[in-house]
Amino acid sequence: MRHLLSTADLSRDDALLILDTAEQLAQVSGRSIKKLPTLRGRTVVNLFFEDSTRTRISFEAAAKRLSADVINFSAKGSSVSKGESLKDTALTLQAMGADAVVVRHGASGAPHRLANWVDGSVVNAGDGTHEHPTQALLDAFTMRRRLGDLVGRRVTIVGDVLHSRVARSNVHLLHTLGAEVTLVAPPTLLPVAMGDWPCEVSYDFDAVLPKSDVVMMLRVQHERMNASYFPSAREYSRRYGLDPERLGRMPDGAIVMHPGPMNRGMEIAAEVADSERSTIVEQVTNGVTVRMAVLYLLLSGNEPAIGGNQ
Ligand code: CP
Description:
Family: Belongs to the aspartate/ornithine carbamoyltransferase superfamily. ATCase family.
Strand order of the largest sheet: 7-6-5-8-9
Number of domains: 2
Organism: Sphaerisporangium dianthi
CATH architecture of the largest domain: 3-Layer(aba) Sandwich
Number of helices: 11
Bound molecules: phosphoric acid mono(formamide)ester
Order of helices and strands: HEHEHEHEHEHEEHEHHEHH
Mean pLDDT: 92
Low-confidence stretches: 306-310
Structural class: alpha/beta
Function: Catalyzes the condensation of carbamoyl phosphate and aspartate to form carbamoyl aspartate and inorganic phosphate, the committed step in the de novo pyrimidine nucleotide biosynthesis pathway.
Number of strands: 9
Pathway: Pyrimidine metabolism; UMP biosynthesis via de novo pathway; (S)-dihydroorotate from bicarbonate: step 2/3
Distance between the termini: 26 Å
CATH topology of the largest domain: Rossmann fold
Radius of gyration: 19 Å
CATH superfamily of the largest domain: Aspartate/ornithine carbamoyltransferase
InterPro entries: Asp/Orn_carbamoyltranf_P-bd (IPR006132), Asp/Orn_carbamoylTrfase (IPR006130), Asp/Orn_carbamoylTrfase_sf (IPR036901), Asp_carbamoyltransf (IPR002082), Asp_carbamoyltransf_Asp/Orn-bd (IPR006131)
């Protein structure tokens, strides 16, 4: 694997290798070993053209825990504001010795373009409304830790699917891992063409809820939204929000997920987000471990992930 651009590119073996490597790394972290020497001498560039809290910081933490050098690039305050192109920005960073470029961009497909221009590995950290593969991997990792094998598990993804790169990445990865995915959304918040999405679609959250092992709530992305096709906030919460009453109708052992950032009180009630069934904080913790596994597998060559000088 040279790049990580899309979960649709991952075979079952690829996906399991990443998840199993992350599990090994989590066990090392659990033994209070905070830093591994594996990527010493390698340089990871975080190239963020869109805002991020979790993804940017966790890639930085992951690279540093593997002893890589990290360069953080934010479009704000850079020569992008003078009109410099993505290609010239990337070539400039490559000239400074980037072995991997972690890129978030508002344009769907930008990481794929970048992969044609740079010699190092490219990791898609979220491109437009297209994909967010490491989010799906950390979500799958979190589900496996809570529920075990995902084969036959029923995962319900609810909300603003139209603008969600998280939904598409999860649908492909969870299908590859053997889970059964149902998307629940108002008709206006579903993509028009979903021919290649391996999942079911429903408009009725209450019908799907009692059969779900996982309920993953999506953020309503107001910044990408045309108000004309969004129901009122009150109507949206009533039909598609996860409140304590709906939480009570989930099966025993079922979990609640959200990739963050959340609109508390809109797609998810605060009591639900903070409940024992919620994995939202675990997802953030697991994000560092999963991103360590991705960087390790892309950059390490034959170095062992675990072992050596700590
Ligand atoms: N889940 C996610 O991608 O969060 P950030 O936008 O904060 O990185």
